[in-house]
């Protein structure tokens, strides 16, 4: 029995490795990360050989009509770019021209378990770097024009074909008065026609332009690269709520002045000294990162289940596995686990069961488990009531 279990584990690992090697065109995840990630583009023919897409154009349009999906319609009409934000009315899709537009829906993995499973194939990259899965549909000639992103992105071709043009150009001048960032002087350096299952990896700042060849759907697996400015200002916000600097401004030796409007040098010196007492530790940075990066986007709404008592929850937990809601973002650092912006100290949980929380975060689910730690069960109950976790199907 034990031997069979070990063999099964080894077989699964080999299968996972083979799948990952095909995903990356025959190279290992290590080689990919060392040679391409954040460095240079990689075209992978047949990355997912049987991939035909996960939803139809009609289903994508249906999603774009939902309140809690972020969608955009980009069109190019009489030489001008236009941008409309969703949610859309179904009638909008009946009034579209035959060519030169594109519908883009973000966060598709929040709605489709198959899309969440697709993202799991990219688990060799930390979840903290993942942004989302965007799916686009465009009829012949459609696309969002030439642009650069601040993201690392895997562009996986679903339905139909797309011509991708890329350029490492330095000229990033934008078309004036366009409602989206379109490069004015795009100069193709390389181009490829992608077929279903082909994938193109692009690091940030590589100019690219995807043009639909016939009906086309593209799946963008995007990894965020936050700017230093964004991280700094968010960290300042975080710190502001926690910082406590003792003392008050004081000037018992004040001298009379001829310039009552002046901010004196001693005043500036004293306040500079006060401000230099702002300090933080690595743990503050880790806690900030966990809370900030696991914070759901503003439009995300968790569906709460019918409330059940702790006793009923415990009984169900003994029979069913659990999984994270498709919308949940769960990260950890050391003894802290971050669930949708909230922090839980793992050290409050019995040592023998702490690893279960890490497994829940890494694998987005847990098989049926007999939990012994009452505090853990209570926490899981709270997360269940908030819609953060569910019983597996
Ligand atoms: C698209 O799918 O049309 C756009 C993807 C991108 O260029 O980032
Ligand atoms: Co792009």
Structural account:
With 393 residues, the protein is α+β, with helices and mostly antiparallel strands. The protein folds into two domains: 36-223, Jelly Rolls, CATH 2.60.120; 227-242 and 273-393, 3-Layer(aba) Sandwich (Malonyl-Coenzyme A Acyl Carrier Protein, domain 2), CATH 3.40.366.30. It is built from eleven helices and 17 strands. It has helices at 2-23, 29-35, 57-64, 90-94, 113-120, 228-242, 265-275, 282-293, 310-317, 351-363, 374-385, and strands spanning 42-44, 70-77, 80-85, 101-106, 130-138, 152-157, 161-167, 190-194, 199-202, 207-213, 216-223, 322-324, 330-333, 336-339, 342-345, 365-366, 389-391. The strands form four sheets. Strands 1-9-6-11-5-4-2-3 form an eight-stranded antiparallel β-sheet, covered by helices on one side. A hairpin with a 2-residue loop joins strand 2 (70-77) and strand 3. The chain starts with a helix and ends with a strand. The mean pLDDT is 94. Bound molecules: succinic acid and cobalt (II) ion. Succinic acid binds next to strand 10 and strand 11.
């Amino acid at each position: 029995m034990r031997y069979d279990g070990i063999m099964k584990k080894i077989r699964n690992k080999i299968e996972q490795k083979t799948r990952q090697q095909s995903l990356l065109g025959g190279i290992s995840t290590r080689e990919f990360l060392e040679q391409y990630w954040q460095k240079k583009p990689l075209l992978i023919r047949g990355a997912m050989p049987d991939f035909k897409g996960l939803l139809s154009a009609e289903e994508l349009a249906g999603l774009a009509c939902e309140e809690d999906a972020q969608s955009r319609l980009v069109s190019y009409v009489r030489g001008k770019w236009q941008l409309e934000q969703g949610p859309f009315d179904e009638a909008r899709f009946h009034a579209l021209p035959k060519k030169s537009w594109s519908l883009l829906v973000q966060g598709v993995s929040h709605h489709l378990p198959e899309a969440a499973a697709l993202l799991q194939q990219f688990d060799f990259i930390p979840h903290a770097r993942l942004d989302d899965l965007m799916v686009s549909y465009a009829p012949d000639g459609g696309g969002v024009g030439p642009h650069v992103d601040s993201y690392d992105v895997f562009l996986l071709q679903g339905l139909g074909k797309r011509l991708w043009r890329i350029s490492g150009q330095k000229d990033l001048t934008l078309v004036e008065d366009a409602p989206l960032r379109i490069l004015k002087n795009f100069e193709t350096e390389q181009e490829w026609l992608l077929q279903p299952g082909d994938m193109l990896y692009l690091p940030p700042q590589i100019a690219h332009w995807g043009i639909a060849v016939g009906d086309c759907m593209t799946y963008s697996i995007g990894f965020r690269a936050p700017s230093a400015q964004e991280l700094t200002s968010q960290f300042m916000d975080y710190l502001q709520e926690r910082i406590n600097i003792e003392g008050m401004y004081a000037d018992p030796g004040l001298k009379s002045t001829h310039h009552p409007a002046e901010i004196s040098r001693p005043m500036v010196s004293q306040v500079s000294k006060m401000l230099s007492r702002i300090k933080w530790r690595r743990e503050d940075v880790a806690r900030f990162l966990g809370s900030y990066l696991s914070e759901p986007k503003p439009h995300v709404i968790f569906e709460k289940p019918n409330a059940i008592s702790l006793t009923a929850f415990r009984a169900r937990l003994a029979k069913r596995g659990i999984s994270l809601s498709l919308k949940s973002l769960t990260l950890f650092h050391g003894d802290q686990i971050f669930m949708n912006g909230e922090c839980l100290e793992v050290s409050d949980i019995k040592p023998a069961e702490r690893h279960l929380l890490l497994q829940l975060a890494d694998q987005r689910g847990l098989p049926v488990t007999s939990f012994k730690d009452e505090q853990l069960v209570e926490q899981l109950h709270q997360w269940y009531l908030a819609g953060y976790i569910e019983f597996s199907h």
